[in-house]
Amino acid sequence: MSSVTIENVTGVVIESLGKHGPITDRNREIMTSLVRHLHDFCRDVKLQHHEFIAACQYLARAGQVCDDKRQEFILLGDILGVEVLCDMLTNSVEGTESESTVLGPFYREHPPVLPKGATTAQTHFDGEETVYVEGYVRDAEGKPVAGVTIDIWEDAPNGLYENHDPAQPDFNLRGRFETDENGHYAMRALRPVPYPIPNNETAGELLRMMGHHPNRPGHLHMLLAKDGYRTLVTQIYDSESRWLDEDSVFAVKGSLIGTFEPGRAEHGTDLYLRFDFVLKDAAAEQQIAAE
Ligand SMILES: [Fe+2]
User: Fold this and answer.
1) Tell me: the pLDDT tens digits for 103-115?
2) Which residues form the signal peptide (predicted)?
3) pTM over 0.70
4) Does residue 100 share a domain with residue 31?
5) Do residues 45 and 137 both lie within one domain?
């Protein structure tokens, strides 16, 4: 039997993979790379044992913060830029399709199904600005896509999502709309405002360790789905919002910035936002994956 050393321990661990049980090719690929990079990281910074224990205790605390309304590990991944990187690796853009960005920790499934043009706002806030949002959903050939469900969710003018604010009605500022036969959608909402991501627990510790602020620019979250097309998880950013160039989770992309114009008389809202989307055909997606 040979002894482990600083130099050989990485190879010893990698060679052990699958020795005592079946392992899939993907798991072997992931674990081999994980061990290699993790060991190199430890050697790089000469990670000390007390620092390893502190990291274990930190992760334990992060787990204790998680419940059905708070997913601390997504926040940590966001702060480190990992979620946006994984999203880009998953939803690569080769053509004219709309860019995706992070889902984030605030999405709730099964929002209220609303008719075209309805509002997601169930209550009023001081200083709120109403906005009429509309646009078209098309495929890569420019043909309208009917029957696309569009989930929208956003923070209230107080900077809080309803599931983190007991004062707001359930599912406030959330809704599910559908495109018509022309691929057209329309909804009423509120101008989103910048907000700090939750930073009172381990996410805050990480932000402080990195010398970062917690703020995100104002944005509307959207999730577009229809069988036969790649699901699009994205956000529309307010071109006039603060923090646009220094988003705490690195999720802003130039193609996702929208312009909030003065409202039009026929809509009766303070503001107007037009934003179109291009969905990627799922068959084209599978073809690329197979190549
Ligand atoms: Fe958000």
Assistant:
1) 988 999 999 999 9
2) none
3) yes
4) no
5) no
**Ligand 1 centroid from CA 106, angstroms:** 7
Q: What is the pLDDT of residues 191-236, one digit of tens each?
A: 999 999 999 899 999 999 999 999 999 999 999 999 999 999 999 9
Residue 231 lies in a domain: yes
Q: From the CA of 241, how far away is ligand 1's center (Å)? A: 13
Q: What separation in Å is there between the alpha carbon of 154 and the centre of ligand 1?
A: 6
User: Ligand 1 mean position to 201 CA, how many Å?
Assistant: 18
Q: How far is the CA of 59 from the centre of ligand 1 (A)?
A: 24
Q: 66 C-alpha vs ligand 1 centroid, how far in Å?
A: 18
- Ranges of the chain whose pLDDT falls below 50: none
Pair (86, 209) in one structural domain: yes
Q: What is the pLDDT of residue 58?
A: 98
